[in-house]
Write a structure and sequence with these properties.
Layout (H helix, E strand, L loop, with lengths): L1 H24 L4 E5 L3 E3 L4 E7 L4 E4 L6 E16 L2 E14 L3 E5 L3 E4 L2 E4 L3 E6 L11 H8 E7 L10 E9 L4 E9 L6 E6 L6 E6 L2 E15 L3 E5 L3 E13 L5 E11 L3 E5 L16 E9 L3 E2 L5 E11 L15 E3 L3 E9 L2 E14 L3 E5 L3 E6 L4 E6 L3 E5 L11 E2 L6 E2 L27 H29 L1 H22 L4 H20 L8 H10 L4 H16 L7 H21 L1
Parallel strand pairs: 2-10, 22-30
Antiparallel strand pairs: 1-3, 3-6, 4-8, 5-6, 7-10, 8-9, 11-12, 12-16, 13-18, 14-16, 15-16, 17-20, 18-19, 21-23, 23-26, 24-26, 25-26, 27-30, 28-29, 31-32
Helix pairs in contact: 4-5, 5-7, 5-8, 6-7, 7-8
Protein name: BatD family protein
InterPro entries: BatD
Keywords: Membrane, Transmembrane, Transmembrane helix
């Protein structure tokens, strides 16, 4: 038996030694915890000083402004879990305030392993007496104290058309947990151009709120470009949040029992003081660009023949309101035929604003040979970082048309923009031909010719074609549904073209755009105009297997048409809505 005892002792001794070694290496903590940091003068406050290793010579603070009604009471707990020891010791006090105001509970000290440890002082706010001081807090009261929704704005005094980022953060106390949430009131961002930045994952981070430890999570991010100077208000974001709140009860295994509460939190209104762009130093022809940009004008060719084509590209790159200004137009000689430009855009929106490039591609076709200069053009923008205007000038480009006809009407062409002379190359004088090279015509030219036989037998060949066309026409007349669809399609194209003509005239543009969208739906979904509602449109498009993004874009266009009756829209926003309508109709055509 003695031999067996020493064998067990030899086996268990390393376990105890390792456990004590791990406990010795564990970081020592000594902290103060309060039952609440705001209470009425007739309420009680519980203060605990907790350490994870036993110590000596504990000295409490003097509790100035409070009366000690109970304490100190000691509590010690020790346990072993998976071979690891856990130890906790606390000194507790019950205090009552002696007056209203702001007080501070000072430092407590204790000696552990020969070292002195101190707690961090904490502030307490004492208010007037409460109606029922002994009533326990409800789950909603605890949720109110432990949830805060904040709208963090990157700039409070931006310039007109300068990017402002709004980040909506939810601060959550470690004592509660959020199980779900849903937005109940989303801001409209009137007088702003807005772009949402999707939040792909809700990652929590440790943070502080009002000097207390919290966890924070980003719920929504949006980039705003103010379109109006003065004081602009950002409407609040409101959320309905479901929270698990701990109670004083415990289950059979000793775990805390939680109670769910439903709370509505709001980020509150934020006001921006938007500054107008300065008039001093504003360049002539300034188009409203705000940011930091580069500017260039390039051509795909510098030498070509007449009737061949080249591409002239006017491009702006950088960071700023890339979608909210017009690109400058090049001034080309009249001998160069220029077509309407194709707009090219590669812009992405980040938390600092838009960045990328926008460009207009012009197709240019020369008619005559010669040398034609494309004069330098300027692009101006306002840089909010420096508070100054900058003007960039493109390089002058010369187009050399090597082969082709000569311009007989102008031996010397003058470019009105830069007053430079263009002298066509080659011969400038032509002689009239004196030899007409005429030939005689036969007397019986018509009889027996191809035209004669075509006119003779052509009507006989047209008889089957006329019969076929007649039958097709009858079938179309009997197809009532098909005729309605075609008519609605024609009306949609008609009103979309009318909307394009009304660009710049806000009221007429959005009326025509709304009619085009309605008639398109009438054609595709076979519903009458009186049956229109956004909910029905959404359900019908979903049943037709139209993807969610296309459906949401279509509904957003209808909302913009309604919103245009009450709030102003810029020319840039109208152009964006027109392009968006064309894209949405094209996508729906592919899916329906």
């Amino acid at each position: 038996m003695r031999r067996l005892f020493f064998t067990y002792l030899f086996l268990l001794l390393p376990v105890f030694l390792i456990g004590n070694l791990l406990h010795a290496q564990e970081e020592i903590t000594f902290e103060m915890k309060l039952s609440k940091d705001k209470l009425g003068v007739n309420e009680r406050l519980r203060v605990e000083f907790i350490m994870n290793k036993d110590g000596d010579n504990f000295n409490p603070p003097n509790f100035k402004g409070f009366k000690v009604v109970m304490g100190p009471s000691q509590s010690i707990s020790s346990s072993w879990v998976n071979g690891k020891r856990s130890f906790s010791k606390s000194y507790g006090y019950i205090l009552t305030p002696t007056a209203t105001g702001n007080f501070e509970i000072g430092q407590a000290t204790i000696e552990i392993d020969g070292k002195t440890f101190k707690t961090v002082p904490k502030k307490i706010q004492i208010t007037a007496a409460v109606a029922n001081p002994n009533a326990p807090k409800t789950a909603n009261d605890i949720a109110d104290e432990n949830l805060h929704l904040v709208a963090e704005v990157s700039k409070t005094s931006p310039y007109l058309n300068e990017a402002v980022t709004v980040v909506y953060k939810l601060y959550i106390s470690p004592s509660v947990s959020v199980t779900n949430f849903r937005p109940i009131d989303s801001p409209k961002y009137n007088n702003f151009w807005s772009q949402d930045i999707p939040v792909k994952r809700y990652d929590t981070q440790n943070a502080t709120y009002d000097g207390k430890p919290f966890r924070s999570v980003i719920l929504k991010r949006v980039v705003l470009y103010p379109q109006k100077a003065g004081k602009l208000t950002i409407e609040p974001l409101a959320l309905e949040i479901y929270v698990d709140v701990p109670t004083n009860r415990r289950d059979f295994f000793g775990g805390k029992i939680f109670k769910q509460a439903k709370k509505t939190v709001s980020a509150g209104r934020r006001t921006l003081n938007v500054k107008n762009l300065p008039e001093a130093g504003k360049p002539e022809g300034f188009g409203g660009a705000v940011g930091d940009f580069d500017f260039s004008v390039t051509t795909s060719k510098s030498s070509l023949n007449a009737s061949e084509s080249l591409q002239a590209r006017v491009e702006v790159t950088g960071k700023g309101n890339l979608k909210l200004f017009q690109l400058p137009k090049p001034e080309l000689p009249s001998a160069l035929e220029v077509y309407e430009p194709e707009f090219d855009e590669s812009v992405r929106t980040t938390t600092t604003g838009m960045e990328g490039k926008v460009a207009n591609n012009y197709t240019v076709v020369p008619s005559y040979r010669g040398k034609y200069p494309i004069p330098s053009i300027s692009f101006s923008y306002f840089n909010p970082k420096t508070g100054k205007y900058n003007t960039l000038n493109s390089d002058e480009i010369t187009i050399n048309v090597m082969e082709g006809p000569e311009d007989a009407n102008a031996g010397i062409a003058a470019n009105s923009s830069n007053k430079k002379l263009i002298v066509p190359t080659g011969k400038q004088f032509h002689f009239i031909k004196v030899n007409p090279n005429l030939s005689t015509i036969r007397a019986n030219y018509f009889l027996g010719s191809n035209t004669f036989y075509l006119l003779l037998f052509g009507p006989l060949l047209l008889i089957p074609l006329v019969i076929l066309l007649y039958r097709k026409r009858k079938e179309k007349e009997q197809d009532v549904v098909g005729n309605k669809v075609k008519k609605a399609n024609r009306l949609a194209r008609k009103y979309l073209s009318t909307a394009k003509k009304e660009l710049g005239n806000e009221a007429n543009f959005y009326i025509a755009l709304e009619k085009a969208l309605h008639n398109y739906l009438k054609a595709k979904l076979k519903i009458e105009t009186s049956e229109f509602s956004k909910e029905k449109i959404t359900s019908l498009l979903t049943s037709k297997k139209v993807d969610l993004d296309t459906t949401n874009n279509f509904i957003d266009l209808l909302k913009n048409c309604e919103l245009a009756r009450y709030s102003p829209f810029t020319n840039v926003q109208m152009q964006q809505d027109y392009d968006r309508a064309s894209e949405v109709i094209s996508q729906m055509d592919k899916q329906l």
